[in-house]
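re: ur question from earlier - yeah i can do the single chain one, its not a big deal. heres the input i used so u can compare w yours
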Amino acid sequence: MSVSRRVIGSEQVVRASRGGRRFIEVPPGGIVTVQARETAARMDIALRDGPLDRPQTPAADGAAALYRVLYRRSPKWMPPKPPAGRSPTRFRRLAVIGAGGVGGNLAQLAAARDMSGEIVIVDVVPGLADSMALDLNHSAGATRSKCLVSGSVDASAAADADVVVVTAGRARSPGMSRADLLAVNRRTIRALGEKIRAASPNAVVIVVSNPLDEMTAEMLWSTEFPRERVMGMAGTLDSARFRTELARAARVGIDEVEAMVVGSHGEEMTPLISLARIRGLPADRFLDGGEIAGCVERTVSAGARVVALRRTASASIAPAHAILELLEHMRGARVGPVPATVRLAGEYGIEGVPLGVPCLLGPNGLIEIAELSIDASERAKLLNAAEAVRARIGN
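and the output i got, formated as tokens:
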């Protein structure tokens, strides 16, 4: 009599990571595919031979059980807790190239969270990165962070980094579109890409410089890194802005809104209205079509409105938090799909163009692109954004 053996493939490993699990039990006689072992290694998921000891289920507390039953009958809705990730890892070395508003805020947030053993800040302005590093090291007396921060004017100081965040480049001024920056920042990204390739050949690169989709393409070409290790920060920022607008329009807490923006980082971005949820229900249960359209318009124009108000600089605080969100997903502090700009390879019917899409991330960058079920109009907008980016990068 033959006994069927359970086969564990890469799909089971990805599902385990999405659910925040840290290991997979391999039953006696189970078969683990080679691809599953490689995926588990990339995602830091342990494969343990079973059977494993199971903890006993604690006895239910009657008062607590009654409270839960009564609470479920209450009309007040409470947002569920966000999915908790597995025990987060700590980067060994994080490099931030560009000590302007975004880079400076990011370095401060990352140091305060103690997410890296060392942070290297690089900026061409003499003394700027060094002074910021000294200031952050002094702040450790208050934050108790063990992270050491250093500064330099040379990108080669970021050698052997786990992650390199590139915020360098000219920022927008009033009346300037992201596309206007293409020729100006292209030279900067190409030069930095060559230095990163030589100094940190195994790093994951996060591009923040605008125009973001095009600069992500430039970084891919100049480093010659695989697509898994070059991504752009865009959808995280645009999604945060979209959630904020929906929450304000519906007069609910920001934690009661879930929404995502994909596509290009600019006028061609695509807020996924069909998947937007307020208190767990479709957004159109709380807002009419005009109100949702207003939220979309304010999301698309958010960056330009900040530039118009500041005049001499662009947004810096929200982008820093958006980069931090990507880093948290990479180190396992958060789980689930997060929008990032990566080069597509057939996903959503798009080939060879960097575009913002939902991604599953790990310590080595992109693990998998999550293909969500979006409606026909949103898919058409995504395809149009891809063709617009393709035309600008000449691919």
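Confidence is low (pLDDT under 50) at residues 71-75. not sure if urs matches, ping me
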